[in-house]
Structures are given as C-alpha cells and as structure tokens.
Amino acid sequence: MFDNSIAYTKRTVPVSRSFVAFLALFTLWWVLLFVFYHFPAIDLLVARSVFTAAPCASITLAGKVCGAFALAKNPLLEIVRAVTLALPYIAAVTLVASLISSWRKHGARWRTPITDRYVAALISLTIGCGLIVNTLLKSYSGRPRPRSTDLFGGSLDFVQAGSFAGKCLGNCSFVSGEASSGGWLLCLILLLPPHLRLRLGLPLAIISIMMPVLRVITGAHYLSDAVLGWLMSLVVFAAALAVIDVLRLARSAQS
To answer: Long-range contacts: 59-68, Cβ < 8 Å, 24+?
Structure first.
C-alpha cells in the first residue's frame, strides 16, 4: 500500500517545509488552547447542543442536572467507533512491515525519503498519541469529561481546557486520545503513493475527522479536547519529519 521506491536526493526544501509546517501547527495549537481556555463557553455550547436534559427521578436531586448524551449508546456509532479504533493499529503494523521489507530488500541502503516518513509516522504515534496524550495529559490533566461534570449529569466541577485544577483522577478528558489517533491517520496520506492519494486519502480524511466528532457528540470529550488532541498528532508528526530531515542532511553533508 505504501510507496518506498523513491531514492534519496540531496535537497534542502523538505527540511524547510517540514520545519515551517511544524512551527505553523505548533503555533496554531497554542493559539487554539488560548482561545478555548479564555472562552470556555465554546465547549459548553457544543456540549449542551448534544445533551438531552430530563427531569430527575428523585426529589432529593433537586438542583442537580439530569439527562444524558443521547448518542452515547447508539449501536451504530459504537460499531463505527470500534472499527476506527482498530485502524491505527493496522496502519502501524503495515508501516513496520514495510520498513522490515525495505531493510531486507535494500540492506544498508534501505533509508529513503519515504521510509523516513514511515519512521516519522511511527515516532509521532509513539510520542504523540502514546506518551504525550495518553500517558501524560490524560493521566494528569484532571479535566473531567462532559458526562462526568455536574453540568451534564455528573458530579465533578467543570474546568476549561488547559486547566489542571479538575478532580478527574485518571483517563481524563484533556485531550482526546481517539482524536489524536484520528489526526495521526490523516498524516498517513503523505505516505501514500500519488496514484492512491485520492482513492485512499479521501476515506482516511473522512475517518480522521469522524473520530474526534464521535467523541464530542457522545459526551466523551469537549470540543477543545477533540480539536487539540487531533491537532497534536499533526504537530508531532511535523516535528519528527523536521528532525529526521535535519539529521539526514547533516549526514549527507559529512559524506
């Protein structure tokens, strides 16, 4: 599926493009965090639009918000979620297999710009989705999910994106791990051969956007969690590409 037939050429353009892309995406991530932090009403407006309020069953719950996110238990959406969750694992295995195949076929000359993109993709999956999102932010951000906050039938206080003052103790809302996986899938479009980019790239883009959307409409995450989680993978992927390009050119200059 992936193309690893392109040989190395000594060019500096890819470095400048990848570094500029990283700076642009990195800046955009922080700008969006600033907006969501200072305007938490955005998150609340979107969450309320998919929340269905209902009368509380007991009079002892007077003053409490009762209701549910109606799409949270939708069978079709649960199937779609299960399928999309498997795709990053399938893609990662495919990338590893492609790298092994390239090494066995070309030996010491297995490195090409395309295989470097494979490596960048695997690095971004490990560092972005794995370490930064799921290990650090989701474990220590403290932000409760919408369905866990008292504004939407839960018991914990709402906190805005970027605040670590929440009472969530683990697997928290900031940021969305599945959205970050969706963002990572979008990066794979750059790895596809040109003749497959329209045929496979469009479905990948749709799935990439669908994954964070599902988390928002089911009350699992706020809009900010989904957007920033999705964008995080693009930031880390661009950073990995920039570093690999710099190392490649430094190695070429020494040879």
So the answer is: 64/150, 64/153, 65/150, 65/151, 65/152, 65/153, 66/153, 67/152, 67/153, 68/147, 68/153, 68/219
- C-alpha–C-alpha distance, residues 144 and 158, integer Å: 7
Quote the CA–CA distance of 128 and 173 in Å, as a whole number.
Answer: 16
Residue 7 lies in a domain: no
Q: Are 228 and 107 spatial neighbours (Cβ–Cβ below 8 Å)?
A: no
* Number of separate domains in the chain: 1
Q: pLDDT tens-digit profile of 28-77?
A: 999 999 999 999 999 999 999 999 998 887 765 666 888 999 999 999 99
- The answer as to whether 63 is a domain residue is no
Token output for 211: 């994954």
Q: Which residues pair with 156 in a beta bridge?
A: 149
